[in-house]
Amino acid sequence: MPIVKLGEEGRWTNYHCTGTCDAATRFALRSGDAPRGRDEIAIAAKSVQDWLVEAAAAKRRVRPLGAGWSPSNVNISSQSWLLHTRRFNRCFRINADDVRPGIDAGALMLVEAGALVDEVSDKLEEQGRSLWTSGAGNGQTFAGAAATGTHGSMIAAGGIQDHIRAVQIVTPGGIHWVEPDVGVMSDAFIAATGSAPLRDDAMFAAVQLPVGALGIVTALVVESVPKFLVRPIQNLRKVDCAALDWLAEGDFRRFSAAYALDQDPDFVQMIVNPYKPFKRPAMLRFLYREPWRDDYPRATPGQLGAGYDALSLLGRFLNDYPWARGALLQFAMKQGYASGPDVDAPPVYGSWGEGLDTHRPLADLFNASVTIDRADLAHVFEMVCAVYARHGGSTVVTLRFMERAQGLLAPARFAHNAVIDFDGPRSQRTADAYARVLERLDAEGVAFTRHWAKSCRLDALRVAADYGEDFRRWRAAQRRLLPDPADRALFGSEVLDGLGLTC
Ligand SMILES: Cc1cc2nc3c(=O)[nH]c(=O)nc-3n(C[C@H](O)[C@H](O)[C@H](O)COP(=O)(O)OP(=O)(O)OC[C@H]3O[C@@H](n4cnc5c(N)ncnc54)[C@H](O)[C@@H]3O)c2cc1C
Description:
about 25% strand, Vanillyl-alcohol Oxidase, Chain A, domain 3, binds flavin-adenine dinucleotide, 8-stranded antiparallel sheet, alpha+beta, Uridine Diphospho-n-acetylenolpyruvylglucosamine Reductase, domain 3
């Protein structure tokens, strides 16, 4: 039986301690040992469906959990049945006769929904393949990361959900295999997974980013590219505010030439101190992609510049000594940032997966962001930093870039996106300062969206307005998957109801 009950009803707190489920009954979905992935997910999906029916009979709502990382509390639901998926994490190769004509089976992998991004990345790299983007850490489950549109700063890529080519999703009424119109997997393969095929572009775009409100995702078909190397450059540089114009125009080459290498970068990230962002050095990270070669000298994640956690340790100081905020943040940036390898250091290389780490839990974390049209960056960024700093925001501000991401509810919905993140220690003042930023953007008429996983002060009216027709298409897909209102309510929670996704 792939689902086991974990103890009696009690409390469960998410990974970063931003929310607690009271009176939660916890269950775990676990991998089996079937030799073929399709057999294993057929067994798991059936037992998930039975579990959903039992939860409904017990008059309990359900909440599927990935790694529990989301600080927005989209993973929190009290008086519910929680389904931990973390141990449902096997990955399987796909054979040429499992796919429809014209599909490259070698680029695909069948992934159980609880596999961590890190585990998927490792499995792909063992096979000479790679993900082409992911978030700054890789300790989320693949399904959980896709559910909220997780992204990094690969400038020509979208979100992690763009890797998904097919989704198995389970509701009380059915086990569905969702693909785009053109199809991906053979009918025989889909039948062997115990699912009914649902080939429909709009449905597929809905389930690529379901925010945990469309059913339980049990398996994914993930696409990959040939493995590649990245050369990181990481440095602290004073950035001229004129450089924002280059970034807004997408002239990343010019930005790179000014602050790192005179080459086209594949990844550009800038972390600034919002207190005088152009007078104090910013933390810059660039990645340059190169073809794979086996003989590159191996480097540690630290040498590759992974992680910048030390910044989160300063919360109390920043809250208690407002007059020192700018200087303290700068001190933390310097101490906490793996400065280097810089341009003049001997180059180091790593695969995509080697340059990431799985992260350690942080209590009292504040995570928020806004995604804007990159073209607005030049006139918005300084204003955002000024408002945030004036009202006591006590985190660094990170700037990342990405193209339009797939999924009807993808926050990266502009053709070219700049994402401004406010990540660091939690305090009421920081949350209030972020709220002032949002008010100011609205007052200036700047279009923006917010991250589903972060503490972004979203509500149902705003979600409907931000996503417009795409939101209506997503709701229509939801009504097809979950035609009975009671089944839609089964996936509800205070947070998801508040976002207008489940009521
Ligand atoms: C330290 C830290 C760093 C981060 N870095 C980034 C970053 O660089 N870029 C970025 O974009 N985001 C980032 N995030 C946000 C993070 O990627 C998201 O919170 C992501 O959703 C976490 O995945 P998870 O597996 O923990 O999902 P959870 O938090 O467990 O769940 C997220 C949502 O998905 C649903 N869900 C999970 N599994 C399933 C399933 N099998 N079926 C159906 N629904 C499911 C849950 O019910 C919930 O609604 C970061 C968060 C933290 C805390």
